[in-house]
């Protein structure tokens, strides 16, 4: 199984690395980081680069595509959208994390489909023709989308179970000791203190340029 | 506040990137990825490189050091251990994720201290002079250690609250939508099905060369 994780300038690193840490452990999987060209790709904070091992042309037909998000999701990047459309024609799974779903939607792949994204970007996802759903992981046919940033870990474990069975998924979960214990219950706008939600809405440019 | 995340050959990427995604959002923080030399550092799966922006010499006195783990934690890397000892003399926080605590312990920094590591490596941590504790995040003085791989996210939110206060930590948690919902309760040897624990113990080389 060939897995392609798309990279692009200003990608949010955890969106890509959470799922990578899980999907790369699937038996028989070969995972590539794919970008416009092989080489370093700068993450959104400016303090990190991830190295793409392949260019779009080198990975034309992956079985699974994962598109991470960014505060500046490149919904107008023609080459990326063309690669996604061509790859999607042959995938078993086309997936995204955070605002990566905006890119899938901009490529026309989520039109009329249920999908999710970062909680600050639900309206924007709807404007690209998808049907925004406020859930952590949304599966509609072979399209699987995750909510913001850290939700990619839950998405990838769900995919691992669907692809290789629950025992493999559980073994990977135990390998990465994913027994989360956040010190606060503030990870969702439904549970965070209202003052924190308001604060982030006011500073939404931190997560979303648009 | 200067934050240094140490990188080295065969590092486990999520150990570094989980905390980075949180700590780099602390107000006034400047985060560097530091390695023997600046440039790409290969992760444990062989399919990814993270780019270090600085060498040990360039970041001699960080306020916070974070050492990620690896299946092959370089507990005999003299230059890394020397850098850690020198940096530690001036840190506010010296921290690790997963088997990164073996490296801190090998540098002599955890002798007699309560600390944690990947659940498969507790005995090994004890053999380096630390007092292994089966908790997800362990704080002993200015030494804070996390359990395996994904536990670095919980560690970093805990540190964010201690450094910048609970409101900042909660705002970051909401920004990365950390409202975890693992599809299985298999992330700890205490909760995973015994057959899964046995399976990973038999394949422990996947997580630990030693």
Find the biggest chain interface: A-B, 68 and 68 residues
| Percent of residues in β-strands of chain A | 15-25%
Report the uncertain regions of chain A. none
**Strand count, sense and closure of the main sheet of chain A?**
7 strands, mixed
Give the domain tally of chain A: 1
Helix content range of the residues of chain A, please?
25-40%
Net shape of chain A: globular
What's the architecture of chain A in CATH terms?
3-Layer(aba) Sandwich
Secondary-structure element pattern of chain A, one letter each = EHEEEEEHEHEHEEEHHH
Query: Which CATH class of chain A?
Result: Alpha Beta
Describe the structure.
2 copies of one chain form a homodimer. Chain A has 210 residues and is an alpha/beta fold. The first copy, chain A, has one domain: Rossmann fold. In chain A, the strands form 3 sheets. A 7-stranded mixed beta sheet of chain A has the order 5-2-1-6-7-11-10, sandwiched between helices. In chain A, strands 3-4 form a two-stranded antiparallel sheet. A two-stranded parallel ribbon of chain A has the order 8-9. In chain A, helix 1 packs parallel to helix 5 and helix 5 runs antiparallel to helix 6. The model of chain A has no long low-confidence stretch (mean pLDDT 96). At the A-B interface, helix 1, strand 2, strand 4, helix 5 and helix 6 of A face helix 1, strand 2, strand 4, helix 5 and helix 6 of B.
């Amino acid at each position: 199984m060939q897995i392609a994780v798309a990279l692009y300038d200003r990608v949010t690193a955890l969106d890509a690395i959470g799922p990578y840490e899980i999907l790369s452990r699937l038996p028989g999987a070969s995972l590539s980081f794919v970008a416009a060209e092989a080489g370093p790709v700068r993450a959104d904070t400016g303090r990190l680069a991830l190295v793409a091992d392949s260019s779009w042309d080198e990975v034309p037909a992956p079985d699974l595509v994962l598109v991470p998000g960014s505060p500046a999701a490149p919904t107008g990047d023609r080459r990326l959208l063309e690669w996604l459309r061509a790859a999607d024609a042959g995938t078993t799974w086309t997936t995204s994390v955070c605002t990566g779903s905006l890119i899938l939607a901009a490529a026309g792949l989520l039109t009329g489909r249920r999908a999710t994204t970062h909680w600050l970007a639900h309206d924007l996802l709807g404007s690209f023709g998808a049907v925004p759903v406020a859930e952590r992981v949304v599966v509609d046919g072979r399209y699987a989308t995750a909510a913001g940033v850290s939700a990619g870990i839950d998405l990838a474990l769900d995919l691992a179970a669907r692809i290789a069975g629950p025992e493999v998924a559980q073994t990977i979960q135990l390998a990465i000791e994913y027994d989360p214990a956040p010190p606060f219950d503030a990870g969702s706008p439904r549970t965070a203190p209202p003052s924190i939600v308001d604060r982030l809405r006011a500073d939404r440019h931190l997560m979303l340029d648009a």
